[in-house]
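Quick note —
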Amino acid sequence: MKVTMADVAAEAGVNKATVSRVLKGDPRISTATREKVWAAVKKLGYRPNILARGLSTKTTDTVGVLFKNLSLWWVGPYLCGLERVLERAGLEIIVKETASDEKKRFNALKNLSARRVDGVICVYEKPPETEMDLVAVTVGEHDPNGVSIKFDEAAIVDKIMKMTDGLGFRYHKGEGAVYPFLEKYQSEKDVKVHLIDGRVNKKIEASPLNFMVICGSQGEALVSGAWALEFPAFHLGALSGRLLINCLKDRRIRPQSVLVVPQVFTPEGELWS
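Predicted structure written out below.
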C-alpha cells in the first residue's frame, strides 16, 4: 500500500501542512518537530511525489552544473562536496560538459533553462546571460549579476613568497590548471622555485636546488616529495552548494564574491602556516 503524507502526519502527530513544510526545509519548523517528521518518513518509507510538488511550488528540485572537462582529477571530489550539501536540501544534480566550446556551453545552459532547473553552478565557466534568468553561482570566474567563488590572489602570492623566502617563482601551466592567475605573478628572472599546475607536457629539470610546488592534490605532492598548494575541491563543492541554496531562498541576494585561500603542505605532508 502506498504511503501518503497523511500517514506520515499521523505517525508524527502533526498535520499535513507541517509535514509539507518540513519536506521543503522551512526554517520556521522547530528542530524537535523536524526530527519527528523525518523519523516518521524513514519508518514508513515515504517517498514524496516530486512532480506534484514541483507543480505546486513551481520548482523542479534540480541544479545544473557546468564543467569544461569532466575527466580532471578534482571533478569527483568537487561533486562529492556539492552532492553532500544539495542532498540534504532535496536537490538533484544535472551535470554538463562544455569542452571549452562556446556553442556547446550556450546549448548546455539553454537546455538546463528549458528543463527549468532551480539554479546553475558554473565551475571555471562564464556565468549565464541574464536573459536566461538562471540563479547562478560561479566558481573561478566573476559574475557581476550573482555570486562568485574566487581565490584570494594577493593572499596566495603572499603565501608562496613567504614559503620560498621571497625567491620568486616560475609558473608552469598545464591541462586542468586550477590557479591560472599565478602566471601574471611569476618572476622573469632565472628562479629555482617552480609551480606545477595541471598536466604539464614538458620536462622540468629537477635537482636538489629546485623548490617544487604542486598546485592541486596534497597526496600527489607527497608522493613527489614536493610542497603542495592544495586545491580544495571538496570544500569548493560544499561551498558552492550552500551559496546556491542561499540564493534560491532569496533571489534578490546582492552580487558578492567569496574569497578562498587554499592550504599549503610541506613535502612531509604537514600543514604549513
